[in-house]
């Protein structure tokens, strides 16, 4: 691919410029291509931050997508919404999203490859079936899956602009006195434990809005709307305010007397404007049995 730079495109970062020109390729993947030497600027290798100038030439090589090493597996999926462009899956607690060391089978990706028979986006250089966001293994609830590359980019932009409203429900330890509130605290990788993230003023902006649904004996049932979507954001934020999510071993939410297999956190609702039809879409995932049983136990303990 050869691109000549015109007057109104002068003095722009090359990664941002190519992301705008090639709207079926994400900026992150373009940066990766640049770093791997697949982009030449005036016949030379460059950095993603390099500024383009007039009368210059960009040559970009986009390799064919690599086949996913994951194998299709006939695993039941709770598909709560589907059309020709997207689908929304209600992921059960305990299911890993992407195959990884120790979890090569039984993942959401394995199930998607079987369920949709290749009718999934292959953006970012690897055929990773249409997943534009993820939730933790031990968090249940809604994940949006995309079937076409162009729509994948549209959905990614909606997420980046905070135009997909993601609502969770959680049980946290302790009594939150405020009926509603906002946790605005930047998040970065923990310097003490590489498996964790932590609040850090030098991290990435992270904002969570919450409202209290019910208070129990030393527990609070909350609904949370994410303004941003950092890794472990809800778990980090509520641990930071000394109300860790019940059952969250990593962030201090373990309590004896509750037979739990993970944190009490459920991705309950997605609200967005469909990028193709322009219609408002709202999808909800009913509260799962494990969550309802814990609420029943808390009710009995009042």
Word description of this protein:
With 302 residues, this protein is α+β, with helices and mostly antiparallel strands. The chain is 19% helix and 27% strand. It is built from six helices and 15 strands. The chain has helices spanning 14-21, 27-35, 108-116, 149-160, 233-240, 289-300; strands at 2-4, 39-41, 44-45, 57-60, 79-82, 86-91, 140-146, 165-173, 180-184, 187-189, 197-199, 207-216, 219-226, 265-273, 280-284. The strands form three sheets. Strands 5, 6, 7, 8, 9, 12, 13, 14 and 15 form a nine-stranded mixed beta sheet that branches. The chain has a four-stranded antiparallel beta sheet with strand order 1-4-2-3. A hairpin with a 2-residue loop joins strand 12 (207-216) and strand 13 (219-226). The chain is globular and about 75 Å long. The model has no long low-confidence stretch (mean pLDDT 88).
Terminal Cα span: 66 Å
The oligomeric state is single chain
Would you identify the regions where 5 or more consecutive residues have pLDDT less than 50?
Answer: none
Give the rounded overall mean pLDDT: 88
Largest sheet entry: 9 strands, mixed
Q: Any idea what the shape is?
A: globular
Q: Quick one: how many beta strands?
A: 15
Q: Helix segment count?
A: 6
Based on CA atoms alone, the radius of gyration comes out at: 22 Å
Strand percent estimate: 25-35%
Order of helices and strands: EHHEEEEEHEHEEEEEEHEEH
Helix content: 10-25%
**Structural classification:** alpha+beta
Keyword list:
302 residues, alpha+beta, 4-stranded antiparallel sheet, 6 helices, 19% helix
